[in-house]
Amino acid sequence: xxxxxxxxxxxxxxxxxxxxxxxxxxxxxxxxxxxxxxxxxxxxxxxxxxxxxxxxxxxxxxxxxxxxxxxxxxxxxxxxxxxxxxxxxxxxxxxxxxxxxxxxxxxxxxxxxxxxxxx
Length: 119
Fold this sequence. Notes:
Blueprint: H1 2-12, H2 18-45, H3 51-72, H4 76-99, H5 106-117
Helix pairs in contact: 1-2, 2-3, 3-4
């Protein structure tokens, strides 16, 4: 995602060829956001992630779709601030994922409790 800012900066500085790489990277990030929603949904169903993670992932997906649209439309007044917002949100989600402790599912908790009591 950081490469997007580099490509955009080069394009805004007059290197027109960089917009192609910016576009390719945008589509790759969009696909990753689809995968993020799917993974967050699976984790939620397994009780391994909170609901807000799925909601945040859906909003990132929507924002990435808006990024594609505003980029193609050259609405830079929306595209650039939205890109900064998405970068900040994804960074916060990444930091949360490294800092949070994995939650046990109810089934795993029962197994752990049974093992600790010797049953």
